[in-house]
Write a structure and sequence with these properties.
Blueprint: H1 2-11, H2 27-32, E1 40-45, E2 48-54, H3 59-67, H4 80-89, H5 93-106, H6 111-123, H7 127-135, H8 143-159, H9 165-174, H10 179-191, H11 195-208, H12 216-228, H13 233-246
Antiparallel strand pairs: 1-2
Protein name: Thioredoxin
GO biological process, one term: response to stress
Domain Thioredoxin: 1-67
Length: 247
């Protein structure tokens, strides 16, 4: 029952304190409150017992008791930046951009919001405007996110100058060892957020020819890691694979 009580307590956002008593040791407390069975819960307010119950109870009944004595605080306001991040992760770029515009209207120095706003602009092809937004980001607090956003701009700009996916796949069907086509296909895949396919191609190219274009496969892999961030499961997996290939 303790996990349920902890969950209910947390929902009161600091308005409620949960304490547990060892009845085998605290016999004076057991006698004072006439505790005969466990669990027994006593609710205190202003230092005095005001309510309680004995035996396991469903959550709804516990909350009914609490509602008579403790005011449930309003739910915390939604974090617009977190909402925008979730929308971006779902590829709902226009909705994320709209939220970020409001947020930046209140604070145009918010580095995390600026970086995400630039990424939204980049996704709809506004690369010059996105670069200008990133240039306005100052400080080192969001260094990794900034590097990732710059990598995204690089991939999108490169993809616009490369052959299309169908042509690159045709070249590879004729010659699977075409290193240039492998790398260019990975860039096209990155511009379409096909990250796993791109990472797989880049890693295979690195293993086969790590010195291609002065180490370009390795450099591109590191850029993708910046883009996705260290917590992304693909980054964890492919860092391990890259390490194994290196050593």
């Amino acid at each position: 029952m303790m996990p349920l009580l902890q969950q209910i307590t947390e929902s009161y956002q600091g308005e409620l304190l949960l304490a547990k008593v060892n009845c085998d040791i605290e016999q004076d407390i057991v006698a004072r409150f006439g505790i005969r069975s466990l669990p027994t819960v006593v609710l205190f307010k202003d230092g005095q017992p005001v309510d309680g119950f004995a035996g396991a109870q469903p959550e709804s009944e516990i909350r009914k008791i609490l509602e008579q004595h403790v005011v449930m605080p309003p739910p915390p306001a939604a974090d617009p930046l977190k909402q925008a991040q979730e929308l971006f992760a779902e590829s709902r770029f226009a909705e994320a951009e709209a939220l970020l515009k409001v947020l930046l209207g209140e604070d145009n120095t918010n580095a995390a919001a600026l970086i995400l706003y630039a990424r939204c602009l980049a996704e709809r092809g506004e690369l010059s405007e996105a670069k200008a937004v990133l240039d306005a980001v100052t400080g080192d607090a969001h260094k990794a996110e900034l590097a990732g956003a710059k990598a995204q701009l690089t991939f999108l700009a490169q993809a616009a100058t490369l052959p299309d996916v169908a042509e690159l796949k045709s070249r590879l069907a004729q010659n699977p060892q075409d290193d240039e086509a492998v790398h260019q296909l990975a860039i096209q895949q990155l511009s379409r957020q096909q990250y796993e396919a791109a990472l797989d191609g880049l890693l295979k190219l690195f293993i086969r020819n790590r010195n291609y274009a002065e180490g370009l496969p390795h450099k591109t892999l590191l850029q993708v890691f910046d883009l996705l961030g260290n917590e992304h499961p693909l980054v964890t997996a492919y860092r391990r694979k890259l390490f194994a290939a290196l050593y």
